[in-house]
Structures are given as structure tokens and as C-alpha cells.
User: What shape does this take?
Amino acid sequence: MGELTLKKIYSFVLSAILTISVVVTGCGNQANQSDGGKTDQGESKNEGTAEVDRAHTLVWSVPATPNGLDHEFHYSLEAMEAEVNMYDSALRYPLRSDESGFLVPDFTKVEGSLAESWEISDDGKVVTVHLRQGVMSHSGNELTADDFIYKQERAWELNGAVKNFGGDGLKLYDLKQLKKIDKYTFQITLDSPNPVSESMLTHLVQHLFDSVEVKAKATAEDPWGAKYMASNGSGHGPYKMVSFKPGQEVVFEAFNDYWDKENAPWFQKVIMKEVPSSANRVALLVSGAVDAATYLTANELKEIEGKPGVKVYHWSSNLIQRVEFNQSKPPFDNGLVRKALSYATPYEEILSSVYMGTAKQAKSIIPSTYPGFTDKFWNYKLDLEKAKELLKQAGYENGFKTTLTINAGIPQEEQIAIILKTSFAKIGVDLEIKKVQTGDYYNQVANHSFEGMYIFQDMPGVVDGAFPIGLWAQNPSTQNIGEYNNEEVNKLYKETTTLDQTKRNQLIERLQEIIVDEDPIWIFLAEPGYHLAMRDDIKNPAWQTLQQIRWNNLTRN
Assistant: This one.
């Protein structure tokens, strides 16, 4: 385990088991609070139900509790995992079995989720969605078209993710494009065809929530219920949140009136438990105190693989790990500097010593598992002399000093940072490593406020070659955190709205040539994959495109 002695591990595990035992048996009968669910201590509690035995309680250990539960603003990995279990979208990808042991989305087709049916006009400009009737929320209100309309209106007023990222994905640039047809039907009218309309309606950012409940929790000072949604929420998903203690845990209970009876939850309670140290998450998993340990290092995964009572799952995923830059100011507004650092990166050392064979080289802004991917423009390797020459051309012959921010919740990032610091020093670039806690890190993501450089991992939640380009390289974009801005990229991306797939494929290839080679957006580090360690009596982990697991598919053998 490295950082803990056996005695310390035993003490920690014993303490954690006792704590978790209290949590499992002590979460029932919690009263609603009149101020939107907030207690005096800043914790959130909703109405709970009866006590649940350990067998039907899933204890899910994570590096940090969610930085919030409002998907307009909170998209840490833990926040998205909580949200994907609280909410459903209009559409979804059906699941299929994979040889990895995961249930994974079948990206060849889309099916209805909260939507009973939908139609897209022949010209691709009108999308009509018919919601299921009789679907109830966690608060007891029926799903209607008003929920979708209100969601979009709220996003625009708050300038949130749905307006920016979600609106761009749906090509919804004016609320006048929205129309309520009847109680359960809404329509979106577009100025141009949108090849990803269906896929976008599967995305987490388009999850529907109970607008009646949010309006009821709104105040004059908080007219859109942002305070309530940050630590509460009422959706139509398989689990409802009943207790949120930031820095400690979030407790969920199965929603007994969940509309999808074929996928009703087996686990009656889920405890998302914060355990910041990955070594501690390993110890708790091996002891049986928790049922899952997320985001472990490659070394830890290899150490516990095959241990009694533990099963490790691996899925190639769609995750890309990279070094991003604040390109709004020097020196990273200069593409030659970004290219120089790409040639000063020891890729093979990172893959072998950090990921230990569990990852593959990232070679494009598009994941290698997605249509449209090509690796023919990625020609980087460790070449310090070429890096020095590029720095000289950029006007930084003597190098420079900068910061590299890393997420404390992802232990691989510190390992990568140390390797980069050593290598970059050889070309005169002095890195100061800044390690920040997960919540603060994602606040900087949301605010686009990183200094210098930062290690980041993200994934495109819509399976399409153009989508990640629009997500990360188009300017402006909510997720273009480093403010990359290339006029040709902006122009060509807009042309990918064509329904001519041959032309679209040509555009996607040219965009990769610019973004990877001519004017590199990042240092492309790795495709880490998704890896999950669980107790071996837990079955059917269902992976979703934003690295979440849908808990309602899980059972205990």
C-alpha cells in the first residue's frame, strides 16, 4: 500500500467499518427542511424511508463527494455519477454485454427513456419529442413538457451548462426555437440540420428534473432554485438523494415509483462515501467494508486483481488524459510553445510507469473508440532538441517558468506531473506543481480560471467524430477551458452540420490535422480507459459515457 503501515490500515479500516455500519442503519426517517432541504450545518436531507440491511446497501467509495448536484454547474466525476442515478434523459442508448464484464451502451441505436417516441423531419430541422405519461418524480409530480421547457429557460437565465454546452449540442440558440405542442410533447426547430440531435438527447446535461419542485423551492433572492439544486434535487431516475454531507458522504435510496420497472433498483440504499486516499479505498474494499473502489492507480489495480473477494473490471472507454494550457495569454497563446512541450513529453515513460500497461497513447481529440478517429496526424515523440528549436522559434530560447495544476483526487496526475517537471527542465521550462483538492479543481474548470498549464481528463458524452471538436476546440464553448481559438477550426466545425456523411468525414479529418499537428490544442498523454474494482459478489456494472455507473443495474449475488 506504500503510504500506510499495516497497523494504520487496520485502524483506518476498523474505524471506517464502524462508521459505515452506523450510516447504513441510521439514515431512516429524515424530515424535510423548510429551507429547501438545508440543515443548520449546511448538510442536505430529504425524506428518508425505512432502514435497509447491509446486503441491500451498496457502499461506493470515491475520492471526493460531488462538488454539487446541479448539472448546470457541477460536473466533477462524482457529481455526474450522482446525477446519472437521480435523473433520466428523454432518450438513451440500450445496454449490451461486453467481454470486459461491463454492460456498455450500444452506440448503433437510440431508444426512448423518458420519451415514449420522437420524430425528426426529413430536412433534420424539426425534432418532436413525446414524453411518457404517468411518470412521477421523487417529489410526486408528473413529468410533462413543461419540465423540458423550464429546464432550458432556467439554463439561459443562469447561463449554465444547458444554455452553453447543451444548447450548442442541440443547436438551440434562442428559446423561441422551443414549442410546447401539448402536455407531454415539445418541439425544437433548428436553423440547420443537426446530425447529433438524437445522441444529444441521451446526454446527462439534458436530464429532466421536476420543475414544479424547483419552483416551489425558489425564493426572491434565488428565483431559479440554484441553492436547492446544488445539494438536493427531484428527478425521475432510479435513486433519490436523501442526505448530502459534503466531504463525508451522499446517501441515496431506491425510488419505489421508478417508471422503468424492468430496470428497477435491486440495491435499496447507496452510500457514496468520500475516501480521499486511493490506498485507503483499496484497504476498505479488500476488507469488505465498501463494495466498490473508484479511481485507483494502475499499481493498485494490479495488486488487488485476483485477490479473494475482489473483481477488477477494465473498459477501453472514451476518456482522454491530456495537458491543457491557458491560451488566453503568453506563452501558451503561441502554438509553437505548445508544440515544443509536446516534443518534450516522455510518452512511453508515462504509459509504462504511470499506467503500467492499462492505458494506450492518446493521438487525437477524438477517442480511438469513436467514429471519425484517425491517428495519422499524431507524430510526436520525445525529442528534446526539436523542442528547444521550437521554443527558440517562438521567442523563448531561454525557457520560462509556469505552473502545472493537478487534481488531488486522481493520483496518476501527480506521477505524470513529476515526470513532466523533470523532462521540461531539460529545455529550460520550470514547472511549479500545484496540487488542489477535487472540489476546488472543478471550480476552476467551471470558471476557466487555471493559470499556466493543468492536467485534465475528460470524455465526449456523445458518440460522434465532430462532437468532441465542438466540445473542446470550438470557441466559444463551455468546455473549451483553455480558450483555444483557431479561426479555421471555428469555420470548419460549423460546416459539420451537413447531413452529407462523406463531406462530414472529410471535414472531421481536416479538423484533426489542424488540432493535433498544425496548431496543437493539448499535449495528448493517454487514453486511460475506465477501471473499477468491486467486491466479486456485485454483478452487472453498467458503464455510461461520462464514466458513471448506473447503480440500478447492479445486484449482489
User: Anything to note?
Assistant: Confidence is low (pLDDT under 50) at residues 1-14, 16-42. Residues 354 and 412 are 6 Å apart (CA to CA). Residues 6-25 form the longest helix (20 residues). The chain has three domains: 6-89+224-315+530-556, 102-211, 320-526.
